[in-house]
Amino acid sequence: MSPLPPQPVSPLDGRYRSVAGVLGEHLSEAGLNRARVHVEVEWLIALTDRGLFGTSALPAEKKDALRAFAADFGQAEIDELAKLEATTRHDVKAVEYLVRGELSRQGLDAIAELTHFAATSEDINNLSYALTIRAAVQEVWTPRFRDVIGRLREWALAERDRPMLSHTHGQPATPTTVGKEFAVVVHRLERQLRRVESTEFLGKFSGATGTFSAHLAADADADWPTISRDFVESLGLTWNPLTTQIESHDWQAELFQAVAHANRILHNLATDVWTYISMGYFTQVPQPGATGSSTMPHKINPIRFENAEANLELSNALLDSLAATLVTSRLQRDLTDSTTQRNVGVALGHSLLALDNLFRGLGEIAVSEQKLAADLDGNWEVLAEAIQTVIRAEVAAGRSTIADPYALLKELTRGHRVGQTELVEFVDALEIGDAAKARLRELTPGTYVGLASSLVDHLGA
């Protein structure tokens, strides 16, 4: 058997590349290296702007050229870095040499020694990861998450008045509306969205053990903490003043926990929609040319929701691991985070794939009015709650002397079906006021939905 040509190991880079591949712009090795070049260039500019070590601010065109080098990072730079790292055996050192080469090409050899000045690899890496993760979350993951919330909101508003039998513990229960149930999910997801969007992306730039030791040795008069803070904030990040060699990654853990929580809510949605499809409450709209089963032509399998469910589980396995392990580093530094953080894109990729499937899946289902109506009409016993509650109110108001209304309804309804006729006869025989009887006679499973429709208004505009 002849060997295959090189193939991606991860399905995110193979079968699902059309969906998840966009994350590679930020969370691939190339995306990380582009960010590293950006940070190295900006540090050079920051040092020369302050005139440190006898330098002066670079002319605007030189700054523009250096920034363009970082922004235009592409295949040529990727290939050059590979060659450099083959010698250095150190990824960040290879980036330093790449930048030095560009300085030479631009006639800036005089400031070459300020490349990576007083910086440890983690000074570059922590800022680069903060920039790439922020971009991936804000530009890729969050917009798709919002798309799913938007589609769920459409469902909530369109079906706010559609009565549906509830099932608590898998058993028929007090009816709700389709829209209200979708609104619950929207409300839950929007809370998590606010958590994700409130993330502080922290960064440090304080040397080998977070003490500015090398900085101070080079220039004892410079206000290095202020220089560090200004530099980190110039990148749009929040400065962390107290660290070891590494930025402590607490912000990453908080972000990954928030995304994981959102994933779990989406997982709940996927399994619930799957269940409603299996119950016949939702039907699946046939897609032209699609095959449900390789042997059973009639089938339309709920693959969008099954795919989402599995990918959310994979995403959370990684996110939970990242959140648990990144916050720990032996003494002032170990390298466990180096390989771990390279999997952030994989974790977000599986979540992104799930979001895509949920968005598509929610657009490929419809409500079965007939099935919803049939199940409501076949479960009149769910009105037992209403009847015993009205009796209690009548007893409290002095219009009834019935003892233990709950037990009375339990005897009538528990464990067997009761139809409309039996319930009306039962109500007519009750010792309660005429107005209460009239309200109960008019009640049906389809109208016993309380404030379900108006509760959707809590979603706001």
From TrEMBL:
GO MF entries: N6-(1,2-dicarboxyethyl)AMP AMP-lyase (fumarate-forming) activity
Gene Ontology biological process terms from the UniProt entry: IMP biosynthetic process
Top EC class, one word: lyase
PROSITE patterns: FUMARATE_LYASES
UniProt domain Adenylosuccinate lyase PurB C-terminal: residue ranges: 329-449
Domain Fumarate lyase N-terminal: start-end pairs: 60-308
Keyword annotations from UniProtKB, A to Z: Lyase, Purine biosynthesis
Annotated EC: 4.3.2.2
UniProt pathway annotation: Purine metabolism; IMP biosynthesis via de novo pathway; 5-amino-1-(5-phospho-D-ribosyl)imidazole-4-carboxamide from 5-amino-1-(5-phospho-D-ribosyl)imidazole-4-carboxylate: step 2/2; Purine metabolism; AMP biosynthesis via de novo pathway; AMP from IMP: step 2/2
Lyase recorded as keyword: yes
Keyword Ion transport: no
Gene3D superfamilies: Fumarase/aspartase (C-terminal domain), Fumarase/aspartase (Central domain), Fumarase/aspartase (N-terminal domain)
UniProt superkingdom: Bacteria
Function: Catalyzes two reactions in de novo purine nucleotide biosynthesis. Catalyzes the breakdown of 5-aminoimidazole- (N-succinylocarboxamide) ribotide (SAICAR or 2-[5-amino-1-(5-phospho-beta-D-ribosyl)imidazole-4-carboxamido]succinate) to 5-aminoimidazole-4-carboxamide ribotide (AICAR or 5-amino-1-(5-phospho-beta-D-ribosyl)imidazole-4-carboxamide) and fumarate, and of adenylosuccinate (ADS or N(6)-(1,2-dicarboxyethyl)-AMP) to adenosine monophosphate (AMP) and fumarate.
Database matches in PANTHER family: ADENYLOSUCCINATE LYASE
Protein name: Adenylosuccinate lyase
Species whose genome carries this gene: Schumannella soli
